[in-house]
Amino acid sequence: MRRMQWLVVILVLSLSACQLGNGNTQQGNSAVGGLDAPEFPVYNLNLSEEPANMGQLSMQLGQLGPFHGRFTLEFDGNSQWTYQVDMRSDGRRIEYSLHIEGVSENKNPGDVRLMHNGRTNYMTGAGTGDFCVRFPDTFITEPLFLGPEDFIHLDEFGNAPAESGSEQIAGIKATRYTASTDNHRGWLEVVVNYWEDPATQAVLKYDFIAWGNDPLYQQGNGRVHGLFEVLEIGPQEIGGVAGCAIDFPLPDDASGIIHLPGIIQFNSSMGPVEMDSFYTGELESLGWERQEPQINAQTQDGVLEYRKDNQTVSIDVEPLNLQNFDKGFSVKIFLEE
After folding, report:
1. CATH code for 255-336?
2. pTM score, two decimals?
3. Does residue 27 come out as left (phi exceeding 0), alpha (psi in the -120 to 50 range) or beta?
4. What is the pLDDT at residue 106?
5. What pLDDT does 58 receive?
6. Distance in angstroms (rounded) separating the CA atoms of residues 43 and 61
7. Which of 101, 172, 222, 290 is the most exposed place for a label (fewest CB within 10 A)?
8. Phi, psi torsion values for 126, nearest 5 degrees
9. pLDDT 10s digits, 58-73
10. What is the dihedral of CA 47, 49, 52, 53, to 10 degrees?
């Protein structure tokens, strides 16, 4: 049976726009439940190789309730660039907005906005060609958005952070801590200051400066400055993402939907024979011509194909569990011109 290779991760991977030049990586956290569990005890910006987890940021920010924060990373060396992520949480949904300046077009995916509603991520903007990308928290990705903890690992410093005063951050009197080291993963003269809310242990501000290699775009050595700050604590308005309706029929029980240009994937209880019956009924009425399906009754997988003018729809149906077909089926739809 044909196994079609699909490269849906390429678009998502391009949003990271980098490999961390100083060798820093961080494992993301596991996904947090759905809309019936809106409490987010820990947040993490870096999804790493774990399932996409937009229900979490980093540094205990979930203890704050609704908030607006921003992370900015700047490099000043042979070139100057800025990487900025704005984020908002209303307690149930989280919104990220990515903006990059100072790098060539082939390294800059373009502005991107992502909204996570507790189970599903909707992402659009210039970086996706204004196409609404959709994927669930179970979809494995590389880092989508970066934060301070992707670059600085305080547990590797030779000394513990020391309390160094206090400051008002977003209306909260936050305790300031300072740490430094001569060498951190190839960076020199690293200085870190962060401000923590004594009541919640949420890090309201995180500022670091270092000298060394460009961590994202390999533009030589220079000054690296990272700043995360909670700008506001209080109600936030997060709108929906326009243009995310899928203009293609899906079974009523379709779940775990992934939608990228030319590709739709989902899980269903319907096997290849039932799926053939469903799509024959749906597509023939729209002028599509059914081709003879390739179905293996023993392994319960198959390839369905429909044609209309110069367009082809190929549908791959495979069991999720080869020993137990009752576990359902994975369906991949390829829309080809």
Report:
1. 3.30.465
2. 0.81
3. beta
4. 83
5. 56
6. 6
7. 101
8. -60, -35
9. 577 878 889 999 999 9
10. -50
